[in-house]
Write a structure and sequence with these properties.
The protein is built from nine helices and seven strands, in the order ααββββααβααββααα. By secondary structure, the chain is α+β, with helices and mostly antiparallel strands. The longest helix has 13 residues.
Length: 245
């Protein structure tokens, strides 16, 4: 089983809904509402930002998706994002992205750096945007994000019709200004129309935002090697005993 499989295999027999399953009962809604009132849900409450951008499959760069990140910042150098396929109430959780500063990225080993992508291009080109937030307010954050790197694992490939999260996770890469790294115009146009923004105008307003001065040879690895990454799931012997300290 690999994240590069073109088809996920047979879908579960059902009515074709995504995900499969019956509508929630009144009783279930009451349970959920009550739990929401009495529980803290602190990790969820710490999500302070909504970002809309695009991502590309590392193993198949013909496939591009619009993604919505709901981000919480754990330090000035680290954010963690729950990634959804839309910003609607029934959006599907399709993956997770971790975002680190260049300072932290530079401490990683080369083999680890290969799994990370830069954000400079998508910020300066107006691809990365915070829906509903005035550009003037988000500008300081954008200056920081343009200097960061992300590692994004997609666990639910909804664009190929998966009704459930199927197979192995797929590593995603960020848009870039070369060949297959460029986001399709019709996707940007649809996003811009929905959120009443202009990618072109956003790009013009960000002309002064700096990107990393030097290009790391291992981030955005596909750009220099034309090679992506796919995850293979293989059987392995289980560790059944714990070593004595």
């Amino acid at each position: 089983m690999t994240s590069s499989d073109s088809v996920p295999g047979a879908m579960p027999p059902d009515d074709g809904s995504v995900p499969p399953g019956k509508s929630m009962t009144v009783g279930q809604k009451i349970i959920d509402s009550t739990a929401h009132i009495v529980q803290s849900l602190n990790p969820i409450k710490n999500m302070k930002q909504h970002v809309c951008t695009f991502a590309i499959y590392s193993h198949d760069m013909h496939r591009q998706i619009e993604v919505h990140h709901y981000a919480s910042r754990l330090s000035q150098d680290f954010l963690q994002c729950a990634v959804y396929d839309s910003d609607e109430s029934d959006a599907r959780l399709i993956g997770v992205e971790y975002i680190i500063s260049q300072r932290v990225f530079d401490t990683l080993q080369p083999e680890e750096q290969k799994l990370w992508h830069s954000h400079g291009y998508e910020v300066t080109q107006g691809i990365w945007m915070n829906p509903g937030v005035p550009e003037m307010i988000q500008k300081p954050e954008l200056k920081d994000i343009a200097q960061t790197y992300g590692k994004f694992w997609c666990t639910w490939e909804v664009d190929r019709g998966d009704q459930l999260p199927m197979g192995a996770p797929a590593l995603m890469v960020s848009p870039q200004g070369v060949n297959q790294g460029m986001v399709k115009e019709n996707m940007i146009r649809a996003r811009d129309e929905k959120h009443k923004v202009s990618c072109e105008e956003l790009s013009k307003s960000r002309e002064g935002i700096a990107v990393p001065e030097t290009t790391n040879p291992y981030s955005d690895y596909w750009m220099t090697t034309r090679k992506g990454f796919a995850v293979d799931v293989l059987p392995t012997e289980m560790k059944t005993t714990t070593a004595f300290p």
